[in-house]
Design goal:
Blueprint lengths: L4 H11 L7 H37 L2 E4 L6 H9 L4 E15 L5 E9 L3 H4 L1 H6 L1 E5 L8 E5 H7 L6 E6 L13 E11 L3 H4 L2 E5 L13 E6 L5 H12 L9 E4 L5 H39 L1 H9 L4 H32 L1 H24 L28 H22 L8 H5 L3
Parallel strand pairs: 3-8, 5-7
Antiparallel strand pairs: 1-9, 1-10, 2-3, 2-6, 2-9, 4-7, 5-8, 6-7
Helix pairs in contact: 1-11, 2-9, 2-11, 2-13, 9-13, 11-13
Amino acid sequence: MKNKWVLFVASRYIFKGRGNSPVLSVLGIAVGVLALIVIIAVMNGFQLGFIESIVEVSSYHLRLESIPPARIAGVLEDVRSVPSVKSAVPFMEFQALARGRRSAQQAVLARGVPQDALEQDAGMKAKLEFEAGFFDISDTDSVLLGTELARRLGLGLGDEVTLFSITGIMSANEEDEGRDTFKIKGIFRTGYYEYDCSWAFINIENKNIFADKDNLMIGVKISSRFNDRHALEQVKKQLSPLPGGEEIKFSSWRDYNRSFFGALRTEKLFMFILVGLIFIVVGLNIFQAQRRAVLQRREEIGLLRAVGGTQRAVRFVFVCDGAIIGFTGAGIGLVFGLIIASNIPDFFSLVESVVNFFIGIVNIVTGFFGGGWAGNFAVFSPAVFYIKEIPSRILPSEVVFIFMFGFLSALAAAWFASGKTSKINPAEVLRYE
């Protein structure tokens, strides 16, 4: 840069300026960046947890339906030969009514899968956390229940549960009246309430239920679920020329729960906008501070212009001030935001401890006057939220975006505020000096 003096003057102005402390501006940018990183990390933790439960347990990355029964083995082999495919698992499902103790009943979705489903599907294995027992459906009369479903039915490991067919898929004897009894071999938790309170896994080899293979589907997992469109085309290309391939229906995870995923995206967008208002407020503060600095330094600006400084160079002095404020504030917010977001459970435990400490003091004081007793405070109480701990997920692309947002808001404010320098005439300013 030709005008090397610009950075020197800018640093003198910001660090040794008179009556124009940048501390509040830096803190404002830092708080905005920190808050946005932490809030978005927690939101990602909740949202991605739901999305991954849906994609890894329920809908799979790709789904194949209407498969001719005679072609099932061949289709499985052909699908698994596609390079981007990690696993292909056959499954069937039906609606049923589960009956537990004391005539407790609950509608369930019973899904039949192979006994080695978890060995084939690492994604589903990662999302199924067993609170009792394990994934054992080696016997055709074994069943795995969601933790909330088991609680509602009043059942535990080793108990028996009766399933009554709602859709008529059970082909039991007439005296069984379309029902079958299973022994609970595992109680699982996915973290997604809908699955934990209404899902059951059974063995797909149960002939009383899955004798008819017309409704069999294949769930496919690929190396990256975001490449589902390309992988879907590869699978179609592999299967379509084969006999019966034109009858198969193909779909991806984006086709399931489309409205739910759209709602999550909208929620995140509005959270970005609402928390981003912090940067607008801080940007206005920087704008006013820089305008005031320009007016206070009219004589100095006139002198710089008189000794050869161009309008662009003088303006760049104040833009550099804004860049230093933005970079410093965004950097501080980034560091502390990542530290907090990476240790969310510990951070919220600390906040709850501090708040409960003051609540305890208030309870002691009010106790002397016969006041009521306030309960303990919890940011995300398990009594209200279906979580064991507060999830957090940091996405590097979003962190970079937030950092640049904070930095550029300060830079833009300084740029617009420094426009006044072009209107200063050095001859008029220095006439009486």
